Amino acid sequence: MLVHDICSSMEAWAPLAWQESYDNSGLLTGNRSQKVTGVLVSFDCTEAVVEEAIAQGCNMIVAHHPILFKGIKQLTGRDYVERTLILAIKNDIAIYASHTNLDHAPKGVSYQLAQKLGLQAGKVLRPMRDALRQLTYFVPETDAEQVRLALHAAGAGNIGEYSACSFSGAGTGRFTPSDAANPTIGQAGKSEEVAELKVDMLFPKHLESTVLGALFTSHPYEEVAYFVTSLGNSWQDVGAGFVGELPQAMSSSEFTSYIKEKLGLTYFRHTPWIGKSIKRIALCGGAGSFLLADAIRTQADVYISGDFKYHEFFDAENHLTICDIGHYESEVMIKDTIHEYLSNNFSTFAVLKSMTHTNPVSLA
């Protein structure tokens, strides 16, 4: 098994195209052709985590947070980032990070937080836009099935819980091959009419080259008639945050005890309770103040996230209660999910879960 295989598996779940522009997810150190002796899954990547990987005989670390966010001009060991990178490189340890792309992925960070709280009837809080494309192509009726199946295999035609989705309409294709053409149907220099289908299907933007490759390979024509359309549709399965409902409404005191128990919290910061029972919960793992307006729009009773600044708490304006449970506390469960995902996909070598506690914040 190669580093490339682990990277590809993670990117099948959380494509790098879904990360934010400021992010640095992906392979940070190591070579994709390097053989993997073992994978250590961690929340952060620190010197202690690299040392744990060395002790466990793992030469790859898959972390949620990237150790390297910004470009660096020197590797002198002057801070924890440089020391961690130096230690990893010296010991041939590959470091891979899946950060905001995993925040946006189906069953990603916020979904896992919602699962911990037992939320029901859930959906993405802010679905991603400009991530879908529509492919329209024309194909002879006799070859329609082989092309359609090839496109589905390449990742086109999935809508939510439905796969192999397409729409087609029958018509007549007309063309005249030039003398230099090598037509599948018809003869050079002669006008031709063919019973064709016009087929439409959606596909993820980041798979465009793969989907078009499948179209060109499976299509019988020398020149394929097609076009790709950008869509303004929101992708309901992909995006930031999550919103759902508790199994039953709770009072503020009941809810306080509930989330402390479910998430193992000692305390959390919150705005005043708004004086009604709590049922609908919006949330975002990590730093989620940017989704507060979305939480209010969904008429959530509570918004759970981390890293709210003092003045941002005022923005609740009695529409809901903000619960700041901490950055680490709102995301750390993703380590278990990554570990389970990779263990299920790779059973021939060790996928270990890091025992190193990386939360830099302590409570007194």
TrEMBL record:
Assigned keywords, A-Z: Metal-binding
Keyword Metal-binding: yes
InterPro entries, sorted: DUF34/NIF3, DUF34/NIF3_bac, DUF34/NIF3_sf, N-reg_PII/ATP_PRibTrfase_C
NCBIfam families: YbgI_SA1388
Organism: Aquirufa avitistagni
Similarity comment text for this entry: Belongs to the GTP cyclohydrolase I type 2/NIF3 family.
SUPFAM superfamilies per record: NIF3 (NGG1p interacting factor 3)-like
Top-level division of the source organism's lineage: Bacteria
UniProt lineage: Bacteria, Pseudomonadati, Bacteroidota, Cytophagia, Cytophagales
Name of the molecule in the record: GTP cyclohydrolase 1 type 2 homolog
